[in-house]
Specification:
305 residues; alpha/beta; 8 strands; TIM Barrel; single chain; disordered N terminus
Length: 305
């Protein structure tokens, strides 16, 4: 059963806020989904302050999970969370038909919302982006969050397109991962006050929240959930001093967890923490040895055991 109730947005209340982990999908060394590790990770986040779990997003290796696996991991994550923390399913695709199918699957799994990345590789126009997201929203009645990450998708959804989509009833917000704070302000000014803004860039997330954002969908939160939650809560209440003190310890993670393509470094970090094995699916490979010291130093700076 979903933890959040759809009418809350109609009443002008935010649906999600704070530190939302872009959860890795743990795998055994042969690439199979690691059930035991998934259960341990969900519990780890619930016990350490994570405010929501994003299941099978980019960090969850959505690109290499088939549809059956994708649906299963979302369903299993909802089951493990047991309503204690909201679960957002990553259901984006460069095929509108597939995005609709995955979004329907997330709804049936009990996800509280879905996260839909801009279609990658086929490079749609702004009108194509609008029609894509509107088609998914019209097809499946579940709260939907747009996701703009041009560094991965080769398409940049412009603020005026976001403003058009913000008027679609069940599109509730956007994960803006450009790291461009001016872009976030432009979106804020062009959308209704109920439209929610989530950072998709850990390095600028603190400032994003201090400037009126609702939360961050975070890679860093995989390994430092309590610190990310505490930083977000400080920023949301406008306490720059407290937020900065926490974020300073996380700066290394914000940077070094991207020395190779996400989720390569964060999966290796979780392996070093004893949380998962080194399982990862091709074409991604285990973190190069030359980066081991950098990621270890970042973990130590953050106080992660």
């Amino acid at each position: 059963m979903a933890f959040f109730v759809w009418p809350s947005r109609m009443a002008g209340e935010g649906m999600f806020k704070g530190s939302m982990v872009a959860l890795v999908t743990p795998m055994t060394t042969d690439g199979a989904i690691d059930e035991e590790a998934l259960a341990a990770l969900v519990e780890f986040h619930i016990q350490n302050g994570t405010d929501a779990i994003v299941s099978v997003g980019t960090t969850g290796e959505s690109a290499t999970l088939d549809e059956e696996e994708h649906c299963y991991v979302m369903r299993r994550t909802v089951s493990l969370a047991r309503g204690r923390v909201p679960v957002i399913g990553g259901t984006g695709s460069n095929s509108t038909r597939e995005a609709i199918e995955l979004t329907q699957c997330a709804k049936e799994a009990g996800c509280d919302a879905v996260l839909l990345v801009t279609p990658y590789y086929n490079k749609p126009t702004q009108e194509g982006l609008f029609q894509h997201f509107k088609a998914v929203a019209d097809a499946v009645a579940i709260p939907q969050i747009l996701y703009n990450v041009p560094g991965r998708t080769a398409v940049d959804m412009q603020a005026d397109t976001v403003a058009r989509l913000s008027k679609v009833k069940n599109i509730i917000g956007i994960k803006e991962a450009t790291g461009n704070l001016e872009r976030a302000q432009t979106i804020r000014q062009s959308c209704d006050a109920t439209f929610e803004l989530y950072s998709g860039d850990d390095a600028t997330a603190m400032e994003f929240l201090l400037q009126g954002g609702h939360g961050v969908i975070s890679v860093t939160a995989n390994v430092a959930p309590q610190a990310m939650h505490d930083m977000c809560m400080a920023a949301l209440r406008g306490d720059r001093v407290a937020a900065s003190a926490i974020d300073a310890k996380l700066t290394g993670l914000h940077n070094k967890l991207f020395v190779e393509a996400n989720p390569i470094p964060v999966k290796w970090a979780l392996y070093k923490m004893g949380m998962i094995t080194q399982g990862i699916r091709l074409p991604l490979t285990v973190l190069s040895e030359k980066f081991h010291a950098d990621v270890t130093a970042a973990l130590q700076q953050a106080g992660v055991a």
